[in-house]
Every structure is written in C-alpha cells, then in structure tokens.
Design a protein that fits this description.
single chain; 735 residues; alpha/beta; Alpha-Beta Plaits; DHBP synthase; Nucleotidyltransferase, domain 5; seven-stranded mixed beta sheet; 23 helices; 33% helix; 19% strand; globular; binds zinc ion
C-alpha cells in the first residue's frame, strides 16, 4: 500500500484498526487517487481477503507532505482478523532465488511481506521479529536495509533473512558440500531423506521407484496408508493424474494444499503409492528449499508427514533424528525452530465444491465468519479423531491446525500447546463458554469439564448435531434437514450413531430417521476388522453363520468366527450402531476389497475406489420402524448385495450398488422429513460425505425435489469440522 501510494505521489496515512480492518487516507491529484483505488482492488496482497470496501471523502489536510504508516489502533490487536497463515514462496522471491545478482540468490528461506512462514514461527502478539523464532537470527546489514526501506517489498517483513544471517541448512550424517545438492544426490540414488519444512518434517523419496516404496512402507510400518507426493509443476502432475481447471487452481493456490486427484489409467506410477485406490494426493513445491531441490530433479517425490503411528508430527531436530533413525537414510534439516506444528492441508474437489479433509497449513488460523448475535467468546474442543479446536470472538471463528487423534498423552499435550498458541496469536483471554462432544470418555470432553469447573459454562453437543450445525454456520442458515454420515458419534441413547437424518436448527435437533441398527461385535475391533461387521449385519438372519463362514475370513480363523457369534448371542461387548461407515466397511469385507483397516476410513475408501465406473443394480430398498423413527433396512440391502455376489455380478457393480443404496435410502428419508416439516434445505456432513459418488447422488436427489443442497466447503465434513459446529450450537444456546 505504502509503495503504491509513494509511486503515485500521494500523501496520507494507513492504519491497522484490528478487528475493524484498515483505514487508509490519501490525498493528491484526483486521477492518481483513482489509480490508487484501482490498484487496491486489483493488486491486493495474495492473502488479503477484502470483505468490504468503504469509500468516503475527507477534508484535505494541508500539512500532509508524505505517506505515513501509523501505529495500530486497538493495543494488542485483541482478536484481530490479521493473524497471518503460512504461505508458499511468492513469484518475486522465487525470482530472487534464481537471480545471480540478488542478495537472496540461492537462499532456501527467502521470503517477504507477501510470503513465507507465519503461524508456525509466531510466538505471540504483536507480530514483530522478537516474538518469532526468527529472533535468533539478527539481520545482516543488507537485510536490515530492505527491512527498513518503505519502498521495498521486504519492508517490515518479520521473516526476512539471507544466506549470511538467516537459518542454515545442514545435511546429515555428513555435510561435505551444498546440503541441497547432497540431498538431490541421495534422492536420485534411491535413498530416503527426512526433509524439515515449514510446520513439520516430511519423509521424501523417489516416487517412481517401486521397490523403494515397499522398503519405505516396511521401515515406516505403514502397510497401506496412501503417500502424498510433491511434483515439480502442474505439467509433471498431468503426466500421472487428471487435473481439472478447478483442481489446478487449488494446486497453484498460494496456500498450497495437497489435492486428491484421479490417477491416469494406466498410471505410470507404482501402485504402492496408494494401494487399492484410484487416487493420488499431490502438492506443488511451497518453500524455496522445495524449489531448489526440484531445480535438479525430474521425478515426483513422496512427501509424507513424518509422524510415528498415532503421534504428532516430529518438529524438533533432535527428535527428528532420533525418531526416524530406523526409517530414513539421511536428514536435510534447518536450524529455525518450529513454534507451532502444522500439517499440510488436504482436500479434494467433489460434488461441485472443495472438500477439506485437513484444513491446516496455509489456512490456520485464518478466521471463518460466523454470524451470531451473541457477544460471548467460545472455545470448542471438538471430538477425538482428526481433531481441530477453535476459538470464537465477535463474529470470527479461529480454527486451529489439524491436531490428529486425541487419544494419548502426546497428542493431548499437542492440543494443550495449541490452546496456548492460539490464545497467544489471537490475543484472546480464555473464553468462559466451552463446547465439547457428548462422549463421556473423550479426553477433549474431560478437559472441557475441567476447564468449565473453574467457573465457565459448558455445552456438550451431540456429535452429528455438531456436523449439521457446521453446515448451518457456513451457510448462515438457521434450519435444515441434516444427513449426518460418518464412522461413529456418541448418541443420546449411548449407542454409536453415524447414519442419521436430523431435523436440526442451531440450538437443537430431533432424530427423525437413520439406518437400521447393526451389531458391532467387539466394539472398536469391529472397526479395525470389517469382517466382524459382516457377522454383525447378518446376525439374527437365516443361516448367518454359514454365509459368514463362506464369504469372509477372520484373522483368528474359524475359532474367532465362533466366538464372535457366541459373543453376539450373549450380548457381550456388542454395541449397536447405525453408522454408514461401518455398513460400507462390512460391504468392503464381504466383497473381499478390504478385510483389515490399515488407516481411518480405509475399507470405505477402497470400496469407493472399487466402485469407480461401476453400475448401480438398483435393488428395491425397504424401510421400517425402529422405536418411533423410520429406518432404511440395511440388512435387506446387504442381503441383496450378497445374493447378487453369489449370482456372479461384477465387484465394481456391487460396490456401486452399496453406495447408491445408502445414498438413495438416506436421500429419500431426508426428503420425507423435509416435506413433513416444510424445511427447504438438506445439509450433508460427516466423514462419509467425502465419498464423491454418495454425495453427488444425494445432491441430485435433493435438487431434483426442488430443495437446496448444502455441504461443507470451508471446514472439513469429517471431524475436523466438529469444533466449528459445536461453536455454532454453543452460541445459539448461550444466547
Ligand atoms: Zn515473497
Ligand atoms: Zn541477511
Ligand atoms: Zn463425525
């Protein structure tokens, strides 16, 4: 802004108003003022999202002879909407890296006011160098010049550094020449290299080398979970995947998420990248370091997060070297401390919109608008899996980065650190209104109760109500019929819900319909071994045990099968569930697609992969009553699929039939409810909403009936969106 004003010879001032935006006063030739306004509209900084633009005439100030930057108003910047997210290196900085005459030539950590790390290096407010991890690197004279020059794009850029004064790379165990060239040579020779980045560490290797991928899976103990890739540019991505215009836009976005694409058929990459899936998850380089590496590489790299199973990603140099000693051959590290861990964001484009699986690096903690009359601040702690927490302050909801599964000491510690970090970077006090899940055993629920016992107000929100409320929040809507489909959420009756039709508003809901109840023999074990779900779905039907014995194998063989049936007959550790995820798991096992879950959602994701280009056999669906709610009879659907399997139908058609059965059944139940209650919109959310075929089908059913279809676009449909939904509910209830 300063540079534009100076270029146009205008006088005046600019001042940051915190929550209220930015106030700019300019005076000068009318024509130049017009140019200035046009430049503001067109050349806004990459991350500036202009919400509103108000123009007013002011009285000329005769004494004004320059353009000044005035100190921010609003003291500490409490809850300011200005906390930056980390961004990819900008084109100008990239040009500096490659420009032999530039002071920043070849420097891996080159950045400016428009780009570079932010959330991951900021310790607290105000955002100034002493309160970042760059404080350990005093600027050299040359960098100081740029930092102090209002005409330079590095003016007041807190992360400015160069090869003389900034964070340094090292290649280990030995460091003979340029660490980047050493790493390139190692990667080319088929070695596995840990590469420290902005918010964490990646494990990298040549993605075209099949035996190397097998080796990595073995060493990393990750038999099936897909690996994310990094490709040099979009052209390289197109050599192995289909990229639509919208997907290309996301790939190139300055926020640089990992985008889930469809592989080309045939795909030149080894199947070991995403076993059993037709997809491939790719991102483009986002730091100077990545670009320097790809300057010498013509292969895509595996770039998977370096976290040990169930633990948060490694960020400390000592811990990276210790934790990955058995996994990688070499380390490419830098000596800038990562203040806040931040995983790569992960998304796909489905049913006409972006779907976030993780909204993390590049976004966190960019606030989401949340209209509400309530003036109270809220902290929401989310659920358990793939968790995110959030803070709400005066119309803005600040979601944290992706935190992972909060089910052990280390991830719980990460969550507590994140509470402090978010309070630090937003300048907020600990809110007195606290929201959490209904599940009594979640660590997040216990923490919420503990914090609320110190004088706060606690709102426990049913899991699927939170999912649907997250859509209401995004849509600025008050009411909808919700279809909440996922793996598991604690129901009001203590059973495991997950295929629900809720008539919901922001403060409450009623459970109108669902899938019919299935047994889950062994509870959590049934989620890990989907063969158990086949037994659970068929239990009580004619010849159930015989059918199960014929079609699926248990890890513990015949003996385990007998025990499972005895367990169900005795009603021991056999909770009931209406989960769409568990039903799809059962079909996946029945069709022999996936019998053991290697990662969250794997059986259902592989079922979706198997159904790619399959045909719906359109079995008649049946509905019945369970208690006072309507249910889709999933046992009948399952039997239909079973008899088609025995009749020799193709697996891909059966997989598609299962997905369409769920979509058609839930869509029909939602329409009935919408008509009965005169509701005009249907909201879809929950982890199963990532399934492109199911969400597209539900969308069609809803729109053909003349109703509005809503799904999450700003927060994840999965449990990463629960905290936002809890916030919506808590605000409505706290009123
Ligand atoms: Zn830049
Ligand atoms: Zn320097
Ligand atoms: Zn959920």
């Amino acid at each position: 802004m300063y540079r534009t004003a100076a270029r146009l010879g205008l006088n005046g001032s600019v001042r940051n108003l915190g929550d209220a935006g930015v106030e700019i006063v300019v005076q000068g030739l009318a024509e130049r003022v017009e140019d200035f306004i046009a430049a503001l509209r067109e050349d806004a900084p990459p991350l500036a999202e202009v919400e509103d633009f108000v123009l007013k005439e002011a009285t000329p100030n005769e004494g004004e002879s320059e353009f000044r930057i005035l100190p921010s108003r609003g003291g500490k910047g409490k809850g300011a909407g200005t906390i930056p997210a980390d961004t990819a290196i900008c084109d100008s900085c990239l040009a500096d890296i490659y420009d032999g005459s530039s002071h920043y030539h070849g420097y891996w950590g080159t950045s400016c006011v428009d780009c570079g790390p932010r959330y991951t290096v900021i310790i607290g407010l105000p955002y100034d160098r002493p309160l970042t991890s760059m404080d350990e690197f005093p600027m050299c004279e040359r960098c100081l010049q740029d930092y102090g020059n209002p005409m330079d794009r590095r003016h007041h850029a807190q992360t400015v550094a160069c090869s003389q004064c900034g964070p340094q790379l090292s290649f280990r165990p030995s460091d003979r020449e340029d660490p980047v060239l050493e790493a390139v040579r190692a990667l080319r020779q088929g070695e596995i290299v840990a590469i420290k980045g902005i918010g964490g560490c990646h494990i990298a290797c040549d993605a075209t080398n099949e035996s190397l991928l097998d080796e990595l899976r073995e060493r990393f103990d990750r038999p099936t979970k897909p690996f994310a890739l990094m490709a040099k540019d979009v052209e390289m991505v197109r050599s192995f995947a289909h990229v639509s215009l919208e997907e290309e836009r996301w790939l190139r976005s300055i926020r640089r998420p990992i985008v889930i694409l469809y592989q080309k058929d045939p795909c030149p990459l080894p199947g070991a990248i995403a076993p059993g899936l037709p997809n491939v998850a790719v991102m483009l380089p986002y730091t100077g370091l990545h670009h320097l590496l790809f300057n010498h590489l013509d292969i895509p790299l595996v770039m998977t997060s370096a976290n040990l199973p169930g633990r948060p990603m490694l960020i400390d140099n000592g811990e990276i070297q210790k934790g990955l000693a058995e996994v990688v051959d070499r380390f490419l590290l830098h000596d800038r401390r990562i203040v806040a861990r931040c995983d790569d964001s992960l998304m796909r484009v489905a049913a006409g919109g972006p779907r976030f699986i993780r909204r993390s690096r590049g976004w966190a903690p960019t606030p989401l608008r949340l209209s509400s009359g309530a003036g109270q601040d809220v902290m929401a702690l989310g659920a358990e899996y793939s968790n995110v927490i959030s803070f709400y302050h005066q119309g803005n909801c600040f979601p944290s980065q992706f935190l992972g599964d909060i089910d052990d000491v280390e991830t719980f510690a990460f969550l507590r650190e994140t509470v402090d970090h978010l309070l630090g970077v937003t300048g907020l006090e600990m809110p007195r209104v606290i929201a959490c899940d209904l599940h009594p055993d979640f660590l997040t629920t216990r923490l919420a109760k503990e914090l609320a016992s110190e004088g706060g107000a606690l709102f426990q929100v049913q899991h699927h109500h939170a999912h649907i409320a997250s859509v209401l929040g995004e849509q600025e809507a008050e009411r909808a019929v919700g279809i909440a489909v996922d793996g598991f959420g604690y129901g009001e009756d203590g059973s495991a819900w997950g295929g629900e039709i809720l008539e919901a508003d922001r403060s409450g809901y009623s459970r109108a319909a669902s899938l019919s109840s299935m047994r889950m023999p062994g509870g959590d074990r049934a989620a890990r071994y989907p063969a158990r779900m086949v037994a659970g779905i068929l239990f009580g039907q004619a010849k159930a045990e015989e059918i199960v014995s014929k079609h699926v194998q248990f890890p513990g063989g015949e003996q385990e099968r007998r025990i499972v049936f005895q367990q169900m007959a005795a009603g021991l550790n056999t909770p009931l569930t209406t989960s769409a995820g568990r039903f799809l798991d059962g079909v996946s096992a029945l069709l022999g697609i996936c019998t053991k879950r290697g990662y969250e959602g794997e059986p259902a994701m592989r079922l979706e992969g198997a159904a790619w280009k399959g045909r719906d056999l359109r079995p008649a669906l049946s509905y019945r009553k369970e208690g006072n709610r309507r249910v889709l009879d999933v046992q009948a659907l399952f039997r239909d699929i079973l008899s088609s399997l025995e009749a020799g139908h193709r697996i891909r058609d059966l997989a598609m039939t299962a997905q369409m059965g769920i979509a058609n059944g839930l869509g029909t139940l939602a329409l009935e409810e919408a008509e009965r209650r005169s509701v005009e919109a249907v909201a879809l959310s929950g982890g199963v909403a990532y399934n492109g075929a199911i969400s597209a089908r539900i969308r069609t059913i809803v729109e053909e009936a003349g109703l509005k279809f809503w799904c999450n676009e700003m927060v994840p449909c999965g449990d990463g969106g629960v905290a936002y939904g809890q916030t919506v509910v808590a605000l409505a209830r706290a009123g």
